[in-house]
Amino acid sequence: MLLRRPITAIMLIIATLIFGTIALSELSVSLLPQVDSPTLLVRTDWSGAAPQEIEQRINEPMEATLSTVQGLESIHSFSRQGQSIISLRFKWGQNMDLSFLNVREKLDQVQYALPQQADRPQLVQNNSSDEPIAILGITSVNEANPDFKTRLDLKRWSEQVLSRRLEQAEGIAQTVLVGEVKPEVKINYQPKTLNRFEVSLSEVENLVSDANLFTATGELRDGWYRYSLKIQSRIQSIEDVEEVPLKTLGTGRVLKLSDVAEVELGQADPSSFSLVDGKEVLSVLVKKEYGANTVEAFDTMQPLLDELRSQNANIGITILQENASFIRNAINNLLQTLLYGALLAFIILFLFLDNWRTPFTIGVAIPVSIFLTFFVMYLSDIQLNIVSLSGLTLGIGLLVDNAIIVLENINRHRGEAASIFEAADLGTREIALAVTASTFTTISVFLPLVFLGGFEGAFFKDQAWTLSISLLASLGVALLILPVLVTQVQKEEQQSSVLGFNRYFDRLRDRYEKSLQWALQHKGLFLGIMMVLLVLAGLLLITVTKSVLPHTEPKQVRYQVQLPGNTSLQTTRQAAESTIRQTMSLKANDRSIQVLGGYTDQTNLSNLSEEGRNKFTISIPVEGYATAEQVRRRLTTYIDDHPEWSSQPLATQSALNVLPSSSEPPILFRLVGNDRRQAERNINRLQQDLQHAGLDIQLSKQYKQQINTYQLQFKKKKMMQLEISERQIIEYLESLTRGSWITDWNRQDENVPVRLVGKDQRIFDPHNITLELNNFKIPLSQLVAIERSSEPEQLERVNQTPVLSYKADLSFTDWWWNKQKIQDTLTDFARQTGIEVKVGGSVKNIAALLADMGLLLLISVIIIYIILAVQFESLRHPLIILTAVPFAWVGSVIILWMTGISLNALSFMGILILTGIAVNDSILKVDFMRRYYADTGNLHQAITQAGLHRFRPVVMTSLTTIFGLIPMLLPIGDGYAFRQSLAVALMGGMVTSTLLTLYLVPIIFQWVEGMRARN
Q: Using the 8-state DSSP alphabet, how is residue 68 labeled?
């Protein structure tokens, strides 16, 4: 031991503080642990194709091939106009790098079975890196409403300067432009002119394409030398396109493209738009590298932006949104909470010890344990995030528990020992085993978390490590450092009382002794009250709100607004501008309303499945719940005034979106079957069946948008008579409507599409189209049969089976109470109609999460029992201790219900920590009672003496823990909802746990030992 080497102990303390401070400054900072869902995304574009065509010809063959990939858990795909999206979810713990390669290999095999017109499938690893760490707004300083040329210059500067500079910086992976203008070369032709010169569209396309060739054809050899041959006819300018020769006329003149068409550089049809307070801006989504730190990446970006601003005075660069400040503030607030909690815990020590010197001997355990934890976190590459730091903050009171118990035992031996050294040695040795056991029981609660897979393991592993490390450090301080400090501080006689607090405390102890005697005499009444509280807590547990994470105070309100399926992007933008005007007066003054519309971020599954040209997302900054509610009411009223519009609230855009269920509706009923029309016809019957079962559930289609299309079927006989091929009609219609792509013009590191477009053709109905082919003017209706139809905007498949999803207006409580009745109704419905119904949504994931956490709680209790059985060499005494644990949970459930805080992953972690804490004081009390009872044989006296001797350390340890948590309750600063959930659950349980330790454990001990003695 270090008892005789005080200088060594002091030097160890100083070294720990120095290295811990250095480690703290170097720790990586993040909002939440790295929880990357094991998901891959496959996106395939097929311009112009209908959803049903994409499902049959792309999704079905791709799903069949990809389903053989090892470790795959589920496949979820969407088919919509022009695009296929397939989400591959793998098992937690799967090696995603290997899975990425396996999927890429399967895509290489299946791509030859896809339609030739479809683009190559793109594979994206969908994780937290896909959420932008910042959104930048790029504007022209000199022009309020920039023209096409200025907007094109801004887009090129953003691509060629801003993006390259940012992507070269450490920690930043890529940038995505939203609302950029896209240039294209338009060849506007007149069908009459082409017919007059007998030039077909195919000839024009081929000649323009041939004018843009670049190829190596071979090499020449000259003795020892070789020379490569390269043929280049690449287009260099618009004039080169205009000068493309088409044919030689009879007069000998060469017919050029400019003779039959107008060639211009114009704007391609946009696919997205970005508005800030109603003004058009170019938004740049900045994404970090996989595994990179958000705060560090943002700090790296800031000086680069300042440098670019100084170099480009005519370009405005504004940070519209970023997460780094929230993360930094949340962590700093938690560090302050840690400090304030330590001070409050120290004040409790000072009051109880009532001495100028002694509190510092115990108080040193707090900084030493914390800074030693920071050092080990740095060595273990554990991030400083809300979860890991909360674990450390929760442990503030626990860090002094061991020291308090050791000090109390040393003081108990002061009168009997010959010297302070002997008292310190004897007192520490006597209590060492019990203190070690109590510490390891607390740590054992987290032991399963370290090895647990899935979301829970990834999310709480950091917290498990930090709390375990800090508790082990506090144990080391209590057993090794504290006795040394006691011998140095208490060499002289104990000083007189400073505040006289212990006189009041002694009176409280006397009252406790009398109340304990009353409780021992009225065991039945006391236990009856406890059972009523236990049943009440069980009922409240069902009614308490459940969620994955706490609900934070809103900083912005986000809605997605959806217009009818055939709405153009321009009309969607006008609708967005009018919505902004409606809410402008309610927004927070210092921030802007942001709107992103159309197809924005093409790498994120939630965005891909919800975006479209007829949809926009509006983000309105607010201050607090009241303003948020006003904005919601204003938006809802305005959207209700447009019956053809629909809307849905979205989660706040942050790092939380990557967590499970962050974007899913609460409950989904998925009707499985190849015939979606039959499923839709039976949905009313399903709703009636649910109502007959006593379930008032309203169902609404999740993807209810329809798009109107014209289906054309060739009249082969008529086409043969006029000698017109299908290819001619397809090319003509393609160029007449959206323009047919010919080639790409490589212009200053930019690929500009060259497109053949019919001039001045404003067609709104195919019946009005007249084809000018082979010197004939033929109405399209004579060559094809035209039929107008309606089809879903988006088709969904789950695990290679078509599904039709309906949202149900069920809360978690409704689902919890009625899940068996719902399942029985769905089973009967499937038996009668042949349509299987599967239940999905975030509520199912929350229920699974709570079930896993409950299993974790059970495993922790079993481990605690094993440790206690080993310590006490008894199977009976550990059961006495563990009977108090469920009653300790009573306080947590009641206070969650009273405060309205949800039972979420963080509050559940508070309950889990409580399980370890609740047994600590009980261990010491039972240990004292069993040893005293074994020595004297007097059961009542053993219980009475345990109450007298353990009342002080039990109350001290409980109060230091509770007061250490008080700063976490204060609703101040960013991220306080995370702190509150943890602290409230733990503090509520600590109150009941302390009362039960003081009363329930002695009652159960007397009852068990009394029965054993009688038998």
A: T
d(CA 669, CA 701) in angstroms, rounded, equals 9
Report in angstroms the alpha-carbon separations of 599 from 59, 177, 532, 558: 20, 11, 57, 17
- Pairing of β 261-267 and β 183-189: antiparallel
CA 1002, CA 922: separation in Å to the nearest integer? 9
| Strand 751-758 versus strand 183-189 pairing type | parallel
d(Cα 950, Cα 933) in Å, to the nearest integer? Answer: 15
Question: Which stretches of 130-213 are assigned E, i.e. beta strand?
Answer: 134-140, 172-178, 183-189
Radius of gyration (C-alpha) of the chain in whole angstroms: 36
Between strands 39-45 and 225-232, the pairing is unpaired
Spatial distance between the Cα atoms of 545 and 679, rounded to a whole number of angstroms: 33
8 A C-beta contact, residue 324 and residue 133: yes
Is the dihedral angle over the CA atoms 891, 893, 894, 900 positive or is it negative?
A: positive
Query: What type of residue is 469?
Result: I
The CA distances from residue 708 to 64, 81, 616, 943, in Å, are: 30, 11, 20, 82
pLDDT of residue 762: 57
Residues in contact with 796: Cβ distance below 8 Å, sequence separation at least 6, in sequence order: 76, 77, 78, 79, 702, 703, 802, 803, 804, 805
Q: What is the model's pLDDT at position 430?
A: 79
- Residue 657: band (very low, low, confident or very high) from pLDDT cuts 50, 70, 90: very low
Q: In what order do the strands lie in the sheet with 172-178?
A: 172-178, 282-288, 134-140, 315-322
CB 955 within 8 A of CB 933: no
The string of pLDDT tens digits covering residues 880-890 is 888 777 877 88
Q: Which helix (H) or strand (E) holds 758?
A: strand 751-758
Structural contact between residues 800 and 65, judged by C-beta atoms closer than 8 angstroms: no
* Lookup: tokens for 532: 């009523």
Q: For 729-788, what is each residue's pLDDT tens digit?
A: 777 777 776 677 777 777 766 778 888 887 655 556 777 777 777 667 788 778 888 877
| Calpha distance 818→825 (Å, rounded) | 11
Burial class from Cβ neighbours inside 10 Å (0-12, 13-18, 19+) for residue 737 reads middle
Mutual orientation of helices 396-412 and 386-394 as an angle, nearest 10°? 20
Beta partners for 796?
78, 803
In the predicted structure, residue 793 carries a pLDDT above the cut 80: no
Token reading at 237: 């300018």
Q: From CA 920, how far away is CA 957, in angstroms rounded?
A: 10
Whether 388 contacts 463, CB under 8 Å: yes
Per-residue tokens: 844? 């199912």
N- to C-terminal Cα separation, the chain:
45
Q: Which residue intervals of 723-836 are DSSP H helices? A: 726-737, 780-783, 812-833
Distance between CA 23 and CA 27 in Å, rounded? 6
- Confidence category of residue 512, pLDDT binned at 50, 70, 90: confident
CA 940 to chain CA centroid, Å, is 55
192 contacts: CB under 8 Å, gap ≥ 6: 772
What is the amino acid identity at position 867?
Answer: I
Q: From CA 744, how far away is CA 140, in angstroms rounded?
A: 28
Residue 161: Cβ-neighbour burial (10 angstroms; 0-12, 13-18, 19+): middle
Number of alpha helices (DSSP H) and beta strands (DSSP E) in the chain: 36, 31
Residue with token string 């905007």: 793
Q: Scanning the structure block, which residue is given the tokens 């059970």?
A: 858
CA-wise closest residue to 995 among 965, 957, 954: 954
β-strands 134-140, 315-322: how paired?
Answer: antiparallel
DSSP string, 248-307: E-TTSPEEEHHHHEEEEEEEPPPSEEEEETTEE-EEEEEEEPTT--HHHHHHHHHHHHHH
Helix H or strand E segment including 907 = helix 905-936
Judge whether 533 and 887 are in contact, CB under 8 Å: yes
Q: Is the pLDDT of residue 362 over 80?
A: no
